[in-house]
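Notes to self after the Tuesday call (sharing in case useful).
The group wants a holo model before anyone commits to mutagenesis around the pocket. I volunteered. Ligand is zinc ion. Logging inputs and output together so the record is complete.
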Amino acid sequence: MRSTRRCSRTACPRAAGSTLTYVYGDQTAVLGPLATFAEPHSYDLCADHADTLSAPRGWEVVRLAPDPAAAGPSGDDLLALADAVREAACPPPAAADVTGRGVEVGRRGHLRVLRSQPD
Ligand SMILES: [Zn+2]
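Result:
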């Protein structure tokens, strides 16, 4: 369970939905999904204040997708990552197949690569 964070603007009672982070070195303000952890130079903003955000003169504002799910990796990316992690493990862990059809040695998307068990 995560606690509800408030907008950091003075006297604003609304719940924060975004986190604004100032990257001073690049003169960039990054507005993204609510950060899991509070970081230095970051401010939580409600939807209204995020919409009306204006950066200091000369600064660039980068707006990331407000929905963490939309900003995150897609399902395909996650599958590819899982495959990469599996292939990095040597030897790959073989899951015993209780149905007797063989030992699962790999997986590509919805396809499974099976190897018959030796007698
Ligand atoms: Zn606000």
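Two things stood out.
Helices lie at 47-51, 68-71, 75-88.
The radius of gyration is 23 Å.
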